[in-house]
Amino acid sequence: RKMQSKRLLGALALMLCVVGAFGFWGKKAPPAPKLTPAEAHFVALGDKFKSFHKDPVNIALHFATTPLALVAAVSMINKASKTTLLTMLATVLYCVSLTDKGIPPQNVVASTVMMGVISVLAQKTKSLSWVVHLGLFLLGYVGQELSHHATGEPTMQSSYQGDATFLSQLTEHTYYLVPLVFDAVMPRHMDRASGIETQSWMVDWMVRVYHLLPFMAVLVMNFVSRDGAMCFPWQFQRSRVLMCKLTSKEDVGNLDMIRSWTMSQGPSKTTSSHWWHTAPTPTTSPKVVLPDAQRQAFDKIATCKTITDMFHEAFADTWQLDVLNGMNEVYVSSPSTVKKTSDEVFYTKHIDGPYYYVPFASCFRMIIGMDANEEISTIFDMVPTEQAAQKGDVLAFDFHRECHYIRKNEGKTNKDFRIVLKVHYCIYPKWALPFGMLLGWLSTRYNKAFRALFLFTINPTTAFEHFSAWNVVFWTKVVYAIEAYFGYNNVVYIGGLALLGYKFNYLIFLVGTSFVHYLRYINTYYHRKNVAYTVFKRDVLIFKSLAVSQILFHYAHALTSGFTASPPVLDTVGLAMVAGGYALSVYTTHQLGVDGTYFGIELGFVQKQKHFVQSFPYGVIPHPMILSQIVALLGFHKLDAFRAAWPYLVPAHVCLYLIHMVQEHFDIHAGANPLKKKVA
Fold first, then answer.
1. What backbone phi and psi angles, to 5 degrees, belong to 540?
2. Quick one: residue 559, left, alpha or beta (phi over 0 = left, psi -120 to 50 = alpha)?
3. Residue 498 to residues 230, 513, 611, Cα–Cα distance (Å)
4. pLDDT tens digit string along 633-662?
5. 294 — phi, psi (to 5°)?
6. Predicted TM-score (pTM) of this structure
7. 69-82 burial, b if ≥16 CB within 10 A, otherwise e?
8. Full DSSP string of 50-108
9. What is the pLDDT confidence band of residue 205, given thresholds at 50, 70 and 90?
């Protein structure tokens, strides 16, 4: 019942997004001729708040301390109530209530998005111990007091501390706290908070929905990504290469039956051979289709408990697992690799299928070994991992997303043919049934079409057949290269933000791309287990490069007055900080190595002690990698024109770096205490 309620809320949020997008996306509300009472009240409250928050450092710290205290408070409610439904509903109602309180629309959007993020984080941290919860709350609350003390500004609460109306003012202060923090930094364009002079309750509510679209998007993104149906660049991304072993007497007997029959068919010694589970077309020869007994044995293996348990452990036991018999086959590797034919595809780095962008569902290809194979390994270079599938070994991977290839291992020769079962599944959450059915149908259709092309080019004789074989290999390499060096997920994410930034506001692109790598650092360092390591390194390098490139652009823009003049006076100290900081960072990377820099030791990909480097700057400067980057960032921030144009950009970078530095220093991760409450 609880899961159904959560899904209902997610569905309602998605519906509201669709309704708002159809009716109001892109429409700007006309300015009101005068302030309404609600708007006048918020303006007065905002002016009062600003009088106690003039220092940019104090304001910047509020963007860390306020969310921290709220996350801890909401998470404690989740922990005490043993459900997240109450706080989720309360967050939705609170965000809806902000739409008629005279708050500028851009502030409503920012505030509700922050509340959505706070709600999501509170769901993910409810397993923390009560001591840690209390510590986080005090860190946020006391940290806010200390930020006022450090900047010499009194708190707003002190202005009404002894008043008879203390409780009512404190309640109002707390209710408006998040919008007031944003009001301190955002230009106050007092368009009607309700959007327009409403002429009907329906128009009024639809405009409110429009302003809540980003908040709803946060809830929807959390809903679809919670169980792995979709993964965003800032999230921990685990390896989707799954392994297990068939050991039961029944499963091993079925494998032996299929292998014995396959060898009796006399497979080719020069090319690969295939026997299909189900005839691809009505005209397919029965000689290349499994007979009934072998097909039944195949079906028993495909649906055995060992395999279904492997999938449900990786995803969730409530997910639907469909066998795609139209793609299944017995595959035999030839003793020799044939160049200039379509067989070369399997030895080329590749992705099997083209439907990367069908959301919420995955098509998995499974390889099941049937012999004592040592000669041929399947390599997954974006994890990285590999396996020479032997009898009973099960190796499953995403058909449309996982880069891989097969390799002949030097010095090892199989005494017989390498024979494997290729079994295919479509797995998806039950609420995503239409997407699962679509992906299953598309995958099966594609596989049949590719089979026809493969067989057409497996033994090319004419010029056209040779060209077709070359074409298959060429586009295989192109598709692989895009995923390996940039990632289709990143293409959509960055491209989507670029489109939104171009149409609405560049800040969408700036904020959406500048801080992804920090969140990925923190998530990956924390979760650690079964990480897709090469994907992690690729993504953080892309987003870090994008973030630094934007800072460099804005710095040059500020230094040259919008690229219209030579800089009157160079900020030599600031430039020295930038050059020195990045020089030390590069030197530190050289000492650690790229893998050592990106948590290779912590994640188990570098077999060395954690503090294996003892020479400068290690042993002299604590956390030199992070501190050197902070020095460089502060060098940019030192330029007056840059700081005036982007007052909070560098502080946000520095804040996230410091959070991660604390995580590294105290080695905070999923397996460490006291972050996770022990379960008896």
1. -65, -35
2. alpha
3. 20, 10, 41
4. 999 999 999 999 998 899 889 989 998 998
5. -70, -35
6. 0.78
7. bbbbbbbbebbeee
8. HHT---HHHHHHHHHHHHHHHHHHHHHHHHHHT-SHHHHHHHHHHHHHGGGTT--HHHH
9. low
